[in-house]
Design brief:
With 553 residues, this protein is mainly alpha-helical. The protein is 52% helix and 7% strand. The chain has a three-stranded mixed beta sheet with strand order 1-2-6, covered by helices on one side. A three-stranded antiparallel beta sheet has the order 3-10-7. A two-stranded antiparallel ribbon has the order 4-5. The longest helix has 32 residues, at 338-369. Bound molecules: protoporphyrin IX containing FE (HEM). Protoporphyrin IX containing FE binds at residues 24, 164-165, 177, 347-348, 351-352, 355-356, 359, 410, 415-416, 419-420, 483-485, 489-493, 496-497. This is Cytochrome P450. The chain crosses the membrane at residues 53-72. Keywords: Heme, Iron, Membrane, Metal-binding, Monooxygenase, Oxidoreductase, Transmembrane, Transmembrane helix.
């Protein structure tokens, strides 16, 4: 194999692993970034700028290689560690990974069994792909595995990992989780900010109405809608008019750029000894973005505090108002700090947007391309809502078929296909094998959801399989079906994800008929990332189906 081929295959592989080891938040824009060539040029640029330091650099690489090799030999898996494909010195299995990690891990599990191991640079990874072993990890040893493997970029992006996703299991995580799940994202709190969600959905309907008869990129529209819904719930009407639009645009840009960087391959993650050098400048760029992000939060918080001091915000019911109040009142042993407030807001924005928007896009693609599913969804809406009214969030509890569509979409396309990697706080036995403390554990929920020993005709999109099977829900108690994870680290935003999905899809399918443009083929292929997405964006043409045009205003 030629030198450049070897390089390229290394680069392809590092890209794919980096996507898996990042924060929860792979975003739409990653598709442009996960190019191995980009990584190659980036790395080589950084190195060539160091011309004068080349001898020093090469000497360093030599010492580093020997040190890594020694380290890997020293930590060589014991015979009781899970089986796995053989690897190379230094790189381990990095060079043979496929970018579509979820399906690649599924095929490896057919050879090596429901629990296997990989060496990725200096990281030791475990992949679990059966209900019974997932149960051991997420239920029987829940506390031990309730920690995370944090990437360099992820840590910087989240105020040093001071958010819910990356904080290790302990009192601070418990406090953040309580604030988030019980106080901000509970059904009662979500009810109180319904008007803020409704405003955004109505704006999207207005926009789609203006595009009647023309193709619309549905994924893009849903991403913007969900992001606006979330930011609106966070700070509601703190800003008005042009100022609001300007902050919205800036915010979107920062989120897009930050998540772009979160998906960039970073040598520092595979070889922690190299982190200090930040060869690709990922850390530097991320610091600058995190500062920009922080400036937006600072600005919103300052404006809100000023309004509060003038007594203008008394009646506000958004998350920012709630968190600031909680922070002032908090006298517990683990107080909520301003950094926690900002990190929590960021979790809402980054954790909630792509997951929900991509799931909605997959669902709409299935509905639009399967006439029988479309007919049942619209019939249910017509009988519950009626064509003379618009869909409201209060209707969603009366739409069992639509709920089944959501469950079936998340079965075939779980938004976070390998969950967020878990990390045991001590060496533990699982499935009869020893899992070393600090390993990076992937739970392949995607493979379990397509396992033909569990599901009849698993590749068929068939919502009715969930209609009679009430035990299959999102609670994480059933290890045949757990798209939101399970145990202590189960998704913190299930209630919100459910509402966002059901209300958005109900509104779009009730207000419009949809057709794919002439000549376009039905394509449901997936693109792996921490958040799974549709490889080919869904483009469809809306036609109004409600009788009264006033219902689109
Ligand atoms: C369809 C939508 C969504 C899906 C499928 C989803 C799925 C997941 C999964 C699988 C995890 C990791 C669980 C684990 O590691 O065991 C997770 C974690 C998380 N999700 Fe979601 N999620 C969605 C939407 C949301 C929304 C809307 C929010 C908030 C607004 C959110 C906030 C979080 C947070 C904060 C965590 C980290 C929890 C922790 O580490 O304690 N998610 N999600």
């Amino acid at each position: 194999m030629g030198k450049s081929t070897t390089y390229n295959s290394f680069l392809i592989n590092t890209v794919s692993f980096s996507l898996s080891s990042r924060s929860l938040y792979d975003q739409r824009n990653l598709r442009m970034l996960a190019l191995p060539q980009a990584f190659f040029h980036n790395l080589m640029d950084s190195i060539t700028q160091w011309d004068s330091l080349a001898p020093l650099f090469l000497a360093f690489c030599g010492i580093f290689a020997v040190a890594c090799y020694a380290w890997i030999c020293y930590t060589k898996p014991s015979s009781n560690q899970p089986p796995g494909p053989p690897g190379l010195p230094l790189f381990g299995n990095l060079l043979s990974l496929d970018p579509e990690l979820h399906s690649y891990f599924t095929s490896l599990s057919q050879t090596y069994g429901p629990i296997f191991s990989l060496r990725l640079g200096t990281k030791f990874a475990i992949v679990v792909s059966s209900p019974s072993i997932s149960r051991q990890v997420l239920k029987d040893h829940d506390i031990t595995f309730a920690n995370r493997d944090v990437s360099v970029a992820g840590r910087i992006a989240t105020y040093g990992g001071n958010d819910i996703v990356w904080t290790p299991y302990g009192p601070e995580w418990r406090m953040l989780r309580k604030v988030c799940v019980l106080k901000m994202l509970s059904n009662t709190s979500l009810d109180s900010v319904y008007q803020l969600r409704r405003n955004e959905i109505r704006k999207t309907v207005g926009y789609l109405y203006s595009r009647v008869g023309s193709p619309v990129d549905i994924g893009e529209q849903m991403f913007l809608t969900v992001l606006n819904v979330i930011t609106n719930m966070i700070w509601g009407g703190t800003l008005e008019g042009d100022e609001r639009a300007a902050v919205g645009t800036e915010f979107r840009e920062v989120v897009a750029h930050m998540t772009e960087l979160l998906g960039k391959p970073n040598l520092s993650d595979f070889f922690s000894g190299l982190a200090w050098f930040d060869f690709q400048g990922v850390e530097k760029q991320m610091r600058s973005l995190a500062r920009q992000f922080d400036e937006i939060f600072e600005k919103m918080i300052k404006l809100r505090l000023e309004k509060n001091n003038k007594g203008e915000s008394e009646q506000r019911k958004d998350f920012l108002q709630f968190l600031l109040k909680l922070k002032d009142e908090d006298d517990s042993k683990t107080p909520l700090t301003m950094t926690n407030v900002k990190a929590l807001l960021m979790n809402m924005v980054v954790g909630g947007s792509d997951t929900s928007a991509n799931t909605i896009e997959f669902a709409l693609a299935h509905i639009i391309n399967e006439p029988e599913v479309m007919r049942r969804v619209q019939e249910e809406l017509d009988s519950v809502v009626g064509r003379e009214k618009i869909a409201e969030e209060s209707h969603i509890h009366k739409l069992p078929y639509l709920l089944a569509v959501m469950k079936e979409t998340l079965r075939l396309h779980p938004a976070v296909p390998l969950l967020v990697p878990h990390c045991p706080s001590e060496t533990t036995t699982v499935g009869g094998y020893t899992i070393p403390k600090g390993s990076c554990v992937f739970v392949n929920v995607w493979a379990i959801h397509r396992d033909s020993t569990i599901w009849d005709n698993p590749l068929k999109f068939d919502p009715s399989r969930f209609l009679d099977d009430a035990k299959r829900d999102f609670s994480g108690n059933d290890f045949d079906y757990f798209p939101f994870g399970s145990g202590r680290r189960i998704c913190a935003g299930i209630a919100m994800a459910e509402r966002t999905f059901l209300y958005s899809v109900a509104t779009l399918m009730h207000s419009f008929d949809w057709k794919v443009p002439e000549g376009q083929e039905f394509d449901m292929s997936e693109k792996f990332g921490i958040v799974l997405k549709k490889k080919v964006p869904l483009v469809a043409v809306p036609t109004p189906r409600l009788s009264n045009t006033a219902l689109y205003e």
